[in-house]
Amino acid sequence: MITQEQVDRILRLGGNGLPFVSLYLPVEPDRPGRRTYRARLASLLEGIRPLADDRSLEHAVRVSLRDDIAKIEKRLGEEPQRPGTVVVFSCSGHGVYEEVWLPRATHERVVVDADPYVRPMLAVLDEYDRTCAVVVDEVTAQVWEYHLDEVRELAAIRDRTTRGPEHAAGLDEVRVRDRADELSKRHYRRLIGELKRLFKEGGFDLLAIGGHPYQVPAFIEFLPRDLHDRLVGRFTVDRDTATAADIRDKVRVLVTDRAYQEQERLVGEILEAVATKHHATVGLDDTLWAGSLAAIRTLAVDAQAVAPGVVCDRDGLLARTGEQCPLCQDALREVPDVIEELVKTVIEDGGEVRHIETETDLHTHLTGALLRFELPPHPVDAE
Ligand SMILES: [Zn+2]
After folding, report:
1. Which interval of the chain is the signal sequence (predicted)?
2. How far, in Å, is the centroid of ligand 1 from the Cα of 345?
3. Greater confidence, 334 or 160?
4. Residue 160 φ then ψ, to 5°
5. How confident is residue 368, by pLDDT bands cut at 50, 70 and 90?
6. Residue pLDDT, tens place only, 99-135
7. In the list 77, 264, 290, 380, which could disulfide-bond 295, CB 3.0-4.6 Å?
């Protein structure tokens, strides 16, 4: 699981005089006929090996690069089973090696630069909310992180003040209840403080509250406005028996529902903008043209959509068909899925990508986009 601490750590790297190797290697176990993972890794590393032997570079730079290449070759073992991208940031001269797994494919590439090349990683992660899930009762709380469909426990909080019927001896019922309420409030306040800190430092987008149905609302009433605004929903769970998988399943339902709503909202926004002719487009041909011109601010892709097409390796033109690039006249290369090429291009150009998993009006159009500027007309096809 990629943690916010890891992302923050990666963003702080760089500027220390030695180069970083940033490597993105897509994992596509279900794509037969492709060169193997190891072969693709080897050829990416071949691309930077001349730098490691370049006598015009400082000795320390060459040694660091040579060690980076050796380390990456050694550390990246077999191809993972899940489709996605393996990302490495390495600077051996400073003892830095970070490996990250992303749930979607990016362009295959290796970059050597003073800073780590993070944009594709950030663009992919941007599509996934990070959720803080709290399982709460009057005395305890468990805080979990849910991200990329995995959970991990961040903290367990138990109020130090013990209480129970045995402490009530000699007190009348009303005073016992008041005392219990007072302790719960103190516990809730402490938990709120902890959540505020986590949201400030942990990069969380959403909050989910779980526990017994009669205890959850009491805590939700305590939430300050800023945390309440992040609330994605509540779930019922038995703190004593719940496993990590139980928490994950409960939170997944809430987060997925929310994601579907967001997806529908985006598709609505695109169609509305198309109808009023305001910096938007829908349908594969126009969206490919927009992608070719780096005009896409937010791309919406029907999650099931696949379409063969062509790309120009010189200027990145994308189209459904054609033999010659209308921009540069080079021969176009056929690809099995031009929509995937479009997604990678938008990430590369600093745009947002949203996969639409729910049934919307986008389904028949395959793709749509909010644009940075109005598109010029299509070039006349050479044919
Ligand atoms: Zn071209």
Report:
1. none
2. 14
3. 334
4. -65, -30
5. very high
6. 999 988 888 999 999 889 998 999 899 889 999 999 9
7. 290
Strands 309-311 and 367-371, sheet pairing:
unpaired
CATH 3.30.450.40 fits domain 279-371: no
Give residue 327 CA to ligand 1 midpoint distance, Å.
Answer: 5
- CATH assignment of 4-125, given 3.30.450.20, 3.40.50.300, 3.90.550.10, 3.30.960.10? 3.30.960.10
Q: Where are the domains of the chain?
A: 4-125, 131-259, 279-371
Q: How far does the centroid of ligand 1 lie from the alpha carbon of residue 382, in Å?
A: 12
Q: How far is the CA of 310 from the centre of ligand 1 (A)?
A: 11
State the distance from the centre of ligand 1 to the C-alpha of 25, rounded, in angstroms: 25
Distance in Å, CA 291 to ligand 1 centroid = 13
**How close is the Cα of 50 to the center of ligand 1, in Å?**
28
For ligand 1, the distance from its centroid to the CA atom of residue 294, given in whole angstroms, is 14
| Three-state DSSP state, 4 | helix
Q: Span 131-259: which CATH code?
A: 3.30.420.60
Does the fold of domain 279-371 match that of domain 131-259?
A: no
pLDDT digits (tens, 9 = 90+) for 10-65: 988 876 789 999 999 999 877 766 788 889 999 999 999 999 999 999 999 999 99
> How many A from CA of 316 to the centre of ligand 1?
6
